[in-house]
Amino acid sequence: MCRNEPWIKALPAVLLGMRSVLKEDLKASAAELVYGEPLHLPGEMIVPSSVSQVSDPFDFVSRLRIMMSDLRPVPASQHCKRKVFLFKDLSTTSHVFLRADHVKPPLESPYSGPFQVVRRSDKTVTIVVGNKEVVVSIDRVKPAFILGHTPQFTQSQNPDTFLPSSVTNQLPSHTQNPLTQNTSNSGHDSLAPSPKYTTRSGRRVKFARPFDL
Predict the structure, then answer these.
(1) Domain end among 127, 144, 161
(2) Biased-composition ranges for Polar residues (predicted)?
(3) pTM of the full predicted structure?
């Protein structure tokens, strides 16, 4: 009651002292019975502190601010360097495939494209995706090897015009694909009626031929 500060602030120190005091009958403290070892007590509870309190709070704050301003963060050390694999043909290829970095559902291709390369630098590649140019990192692309222009003929054009003259002279004038010939013959055979037989009682019986589906 004679103290100026509230008693509840001094309660933790009082309880700590009660739990750490040695009991004569048990030859141990209450903390030793619970934890198996004594508690670490602050030195002020045993020996009064000889350090005087800070007289000027503003001086303490200013010195603390100067000390904290002198502290600098220690630069982090990188013990390993990640090596990125790059294709040698990326400097000359005209089209590339782009790797998708998002989470892919099952059975989806990891690369999309090919996309045309517009510009390239040491770290990035500018490609045409849709109708706009997109700058991507060089480690996300791989070269796309596009085949050259191959002649395409329509139904009105004769495929023999793309063959050399020495080959066209050796071809017969009227050729027929043996596969189509076999299919045509099998078609006629399937349409041919199977023979009918008459039994003694006068019935007409039709027997199924082998492999007749």
Answers:
(1) 144
(2) 156-188
(3) 0.34
